[in-house]
Every structure is written in structure tokens, then in C-alpha cells.
């Protein structure tokens, strides 16, 4: 924990974990305020989990979520009321503590001098200068710029760091800033293997600061909103950053709260998901302990990050049970909102061989809507000719893939299409409305598979076309929709799906060496041994091995 006092009555901190609550209670805190909406991060515990721990420790707790950059006077007033009414001392938290500190500053504006607010916040590591401008001169604050850069990248995930490195490989003198509040960076493709006991979770995480390319400024903050007409990004705390070119790649949002009861039981009662860093080890724990029963693997409506991941968890679990001799005691069901096993038909025959070998029941057109962990009941909306009907299925183990959407600050922005994704040309990855804005990765509305392999191909395209927009070069680079999904059908074998827009096959290797339509040990070696170092030492370093962009014109 990193608790920072703002007054005798209030301290703020970054995200806390349920396991932190006993220490918080031992430190004397009598109340907790959560200012972070559920579902913002892949490693974020739900408010409900923390609430249960707080209540068990005798701590009062309240939920006052604030979307980054959308802090309102009404929320500040409510925060002030909680400060007055809750037992003290109080701990407030959000992702970094900035939203909680900002709420405190706004709520104390009528009773404290601005200089005192600034000083107390600065002593705790929070710069509320822009917030004070909002309080003292709201009519003039919107024109003040706190920083300016040639290129601003929103998001320090795989896409953001890769495109920054690709830009620097082309122009080492470029002035680049990356905006991201997270201290940690995850190799998310590895979580499938964590859930299968092949990788340790620690192998999939590194410090963000260690990965930001040298010479790139890291602005450790969350984005509030965009003002593309002013070439400006507004951060939480009302700070403003101006750009000449903008690259948007913050990833997507896992909407755990869209499934009733799910957040109350994740990580317990046999309910897990490889889509979250802290839960993937629990998947392996459940698989190791399994002695028989009904096992459900769900897939929500598209689009989702890595559409093959729901199946990967299923196949690897079945393989582990087969090796232990308990597969015949498992009633395994794939409960999918889709209408087919996989979106590219060429790979389905090999997958169906494993479905039959493992005795998996395929149920399509089924959307998970609720989970009762205590009674181990999953509720589905089942599509039919006369509309949806409700079906409740008992389970012993449930692997959930949550619905997924663009982050809230993207969906509410002028950059988004009607579905909420950043609206770009699918070949150039340039905004259809703003010529100096580009987007890539999971947040772009391109009709490709949302995978790290796609981002690896997109990053050089964005880097090249951004410099083209700055007057460098004559030909435009084109992204062809490449995506890759290594479908782990058993421990030691993979069906390596590679395809471009429209499901056209796009193998990286000759068929005599590796035919992706068939299960292969070489593809497993690629997934287990080659791709992780290729990610850390290649893609994130701007080395474009097998990723040189195609030029047109």
C-alpha cells in the first residue's frame, strides 16, 4: 500500500486489494471510500470483494465511482458529505489516488485557501494546479496548456509502447509523450498458459517505467477527454496536453459488472477467468483440484480480446484432466454467444477433432447474464426462433469471459463511431474525421481479431503513416487486417490460426514447415518459447521482425 495523508481526517491511496484491508484496519482507518469504477483494469479487484473484507473488519465503506476526467461538482459535494459523516480517519482510493485527491480538493474549496490545497496535495505527490484553476477561474482555465509534444500516445500497453519504439526507430529526435496511469504492464497472451500451469503469473508482468523507450516522456495520468478541434488531451485533474499528432491505443474495458452476481464470486466458488491477472492462477488451482462434475466455459458476444482464448482455457483444462485420468468424470460445455466454433472456417475441422476427443458439448447462441456463486448456478439468455429464453445451469467450475467494450472516455469522445470504438480507416489506421489522429490495438474499429499479433503488425503502419503526415516519405503504409490466434488444443500442440481481413489465411511459414490448420508441436514451441521474448525484446523495442508494413501508391 502507498497511503498518503491529506489531512488528519483523510488519506488517499492507489488501488487497494482485499488482502490489504486487515492492515488498513490495523492502521486505525475506520472508513473507506472507493472512487474507482469497477472494470477499469485487468488486475483490478471489484468493489464488492473489498466491501466484504471491509465489513468483516468492521470498517464502513462507500462507493463513489468517478470516470477519469468526468469529476463533477455534484460528486465533489457528495465526497465532502461523506468526509463529514463517516467515522475518521478515512482512506479514499482510486487507480492512482488522483481522483480521490481531486475530490478532496474540490470539496474543500469553500473552506480552504487554494494555496493550502495545493501545498497539502503536493506534499502527498499530487499536482492539483489545474484543479485549482478550475475552482478559481473556471471561465479561463480551458485555454491553459500544461504540456505540449509533437506526438502524444494514449496507452502504454502493447500497442502504445510498440508504436513509440517504431517511431523512434525512424526518427530518434521525435518529441513523444505516452499517457498512462498504470505502474505495471502485462503480457496478456501468457495468461492462458498461467491458467494451464505452464507459466507463473510473475513471468507476465513488468514495470511500465522499465518499458517506456528512452527519451519518451511518461505522463502518469488517466485521460479525461479529447478536444481534437484544439489538438488537446485533457487529463484527470484538468491538466491539458497539446499535440501535433495523436495516437490512441488504451485497450478495451472488461465489463464484469454486466453479468449479475459475477463480481461477488470471482476467484471463489469455482468461478474464474484467464482474462484477469489475479484470477489466471485460480484457474490452474481449480483444474488441479478437479475430481469431476459440470464445467462451463463461456464466450460473450463479439468483439472481444482474442476470440480464441475462451476455447484455449477449455482445451488445456481437458488435456490436464485427460492426463490425470478424470476427463471421463467431466461434463464439459462450451456456452458461446456465437453461432460457430471459430470465425475462420479453415481451422474448425482440427478444433472439432479435439471437441469430440474431449467429449465437449457445444451450445451456441447462449449469453451468460448472471452467476449465483453460493449455489453454483449460471443463468443464460438463449437465442431461439421466438426470441430469448432463460436457462439456469448448475456448475462445479465456471470459466467466464466477460463482455468487452471501449473504455468510457473513448465511447464518450468525438473520436468514436456509434458503437464506441475509435473510427479509423482500416488500412491506414488514420482517423476518418481528424487527419492528425491515429488509433491501433483493441480500441480501433478495424474488423480484425483483437490480438497482440494484430498490434505488432499495426504499430509499424501507424509509425510510418504518422511520419508521412509530418511530411516524411511519399507512400502510405497499409494494414491488411492480420491477426494471429495460437489455439492451444493440448499441452504441447497448437493450431496456429493466422488470417487477414475477411478470414483470408495468412501463414507466416511454408506449409511443409508449419501448417497452421493442423495441431503442431512447432507452433507450441513458438507460443511457449519464441513469442514471449519476441514481445519483450522485439515488438516493444521497435524491432519489426516479420512485421514490415506493406506500401501502396
TrEMBL record:
Superkingdom, taxonomy of origin: Bacteria
InterPro entries with a match to the protein in the record: BLH_phosphatase-like, FAD/NAD-bd_sf, FAD/NAD-binding_dom, Prot-tyrosine_phosphatase-like, Sulphide_quinone_reductase
GO MF term list: FAD binding; hydrolase activity; quinone binding; sulfide:quinone oxidoreductase activity
Record has Cell division as a keyword: no
Record keywords, A-Z: FAD, Flavoprotein, Oxidoreductase, Quinone, Transit peptide
Listed cofactors: FAD
Pfam families in alphabetical order: BLH_phosphatase (PF04273), Pyr_redox_2 (PF07992)
Domain Beta-lactamase hydrolase-like protein phosphatase-like positions: 6-108
Keyword set includes 4Fe-4S: no
Stored CDD domains: PTP-bact
Gene Ontology BP term (one): sulfide oxidation, using sulfide:quinone oxidoreductase
Domain FAD/NAD(P)-binding: 150-253
NCBIfam families given in the database record: TIGR01244 family sulfur transferase
Name of the molecule in the record: TIGR01244 family phosphatase
Amino acid at each position: 500500500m502507498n497511503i498518503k495523508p491529506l489531512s488528519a481526517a483523510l488519506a488517499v491511496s492507489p488501488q487497494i486489494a482485499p488482502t490489504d484491508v486487515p492492515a488498513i484496519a490495523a492502521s486505525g482507518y475506520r472508513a473507506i471510500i472507493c472512487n474507482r469504477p469497477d472494470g477499469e483494469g485487468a488486475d483490478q479487484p471489484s468493489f464488492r470483494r473489498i466491501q466484504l473484507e471491509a465489513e468483516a473488519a468492521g470498517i464502513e465503506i462507500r462507493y463513489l465511482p468517478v470516470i477519469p476526467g468526468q469529476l463533477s461538482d455534484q460528486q465533489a459535494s457528495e465526497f465532502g458529505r461523506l468526509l463529514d459523516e463517516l467515522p475518521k480517519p478515512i482512506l479514499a482510493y482510486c487507480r492512482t489516488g488522483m481522483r480521490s485527491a481531486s475530490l478532496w480538493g474540490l470539496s474543500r474549496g469553500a473552506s480552504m485557501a487554494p494555496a493550502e490545497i495545493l501545498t497539502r496535495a503536493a506534499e502527498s505527490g499530487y499536482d492539483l494546479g489545474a484543479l485549482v484553476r478550475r475552482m478559481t477561474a473556471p471561465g479561463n482555465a480551458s485555454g491553459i496548456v500544461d504540456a505540449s509534444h509533437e506526438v502524444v500516445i494514449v496507452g502504454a500497453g502493447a500497442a502504445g509502447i510498440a508504436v513509440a519504439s517504431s517511431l523512434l526507430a525512424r526518427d530518434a529526435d521525435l518529441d513523444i509523450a505516452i499517457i498512462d496511469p498504470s505502474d505495471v504492464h502485462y503480457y496478456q497472451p501468457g495468461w492462458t498458459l498461467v491458467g494451464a500451469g505452464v507459466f507463473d503469473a510473475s513471468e507476465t508482468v513488468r514495470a511500465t517505467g522499465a518499458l517506456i523507450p528512452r527519451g519518451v516522456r511518461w505522463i502518469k495520468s488517466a485521460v479525461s477527454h479529447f478536444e481534437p478541434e484544439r489538438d488537446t488531451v485533457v487529463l484527470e485533474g484538468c491538466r491539458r496536453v497539446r499535440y501535433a499528432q495523436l495516437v490512441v491505443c488504451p485497450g478495451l474495458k472488461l465489463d464484469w459488472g454486466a453479468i449479475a452476481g459475477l463480481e461477488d464470486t470471482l476467484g471463489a466458488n469455482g468461478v474464474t477467468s484467464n482474462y484477469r491477472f489475479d484470477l489466471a492462477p485460480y484457474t490452474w488451482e481449480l483444474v488441479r483440484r478437479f475430481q469431476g462434475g459440470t464445467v462451463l466455459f463461456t464466450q460473450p458476444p463479439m468483439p472481444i480480446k482474442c476470440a480464441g482464448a475462451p476455447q484455449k482455457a477449455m482445451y488445456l483444462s481437458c488435456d490436464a484432466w485427460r492426463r490425470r485420468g478424470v476427463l471421463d468424470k467431466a461434463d464439459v460445455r462450451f456456452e458461446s454467444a456465437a453461432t460457430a466454433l471459430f470465425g475462420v472456417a479453415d481451422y474448425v475441422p482440427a478444433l472439432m477433432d479435439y471437441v469430440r476427443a474431449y467429449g465437449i458439448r457445444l451450445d451456441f447462441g447462449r449469453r451468460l447474464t448472471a452467476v449465483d456463486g453460493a449455489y453454483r448456478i449460471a443463468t443464460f439468455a438463449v437465442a431461439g426462433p421466438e426470441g430469448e429464453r432463460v436457462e439456469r445451469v448448475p456448475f462445479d467450475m465456471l470459466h467466464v469471459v466477460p463482455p468487452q467494450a471501449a473504455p468510457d472516455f473513448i465511447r464518450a469522445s468525438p473520436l468514436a463511431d456509434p458503437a464506441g470504438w475509435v473510427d479509423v480507416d482500416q488500412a491506414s489506421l488514420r482517423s476518418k474525421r481528424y487527419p492528425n489522429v491515429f488509433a491501433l490495438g483493441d480500441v480501433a474499429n478495424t474488423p480484425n481479431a483483437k490480438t497482440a499479433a494484430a498490434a505488432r503488425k499495426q504499430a509499424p503502419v501507424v509509425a510510418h503513416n504518422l511520419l508521412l503526415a509530418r511530411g516524411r516519405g511519399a507512400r502510405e503504409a497499409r494494414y491488411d487486417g492480420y491477426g494471429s490466434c495460437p489455439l492451444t488444443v493440448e499441452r504441447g500442440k497448437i493450431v496456429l490460426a493466422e488470417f487477414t481481413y475477411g478470414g483470408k489465411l495468412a501463414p507466416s511459414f511454408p506449409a511443409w514447415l508449419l501448417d497452421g490448420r493442423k495441431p503442431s508441436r512447432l507452433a507450441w514451441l513458438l507460443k511457449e518459447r519464441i513469442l514471449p521474448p519476441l514481445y519483450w525484446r522485439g515488438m516493444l523495442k521497435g524491432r519489426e521482425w516479420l512485421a514490415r508494413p506493406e506500401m501502396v501508391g
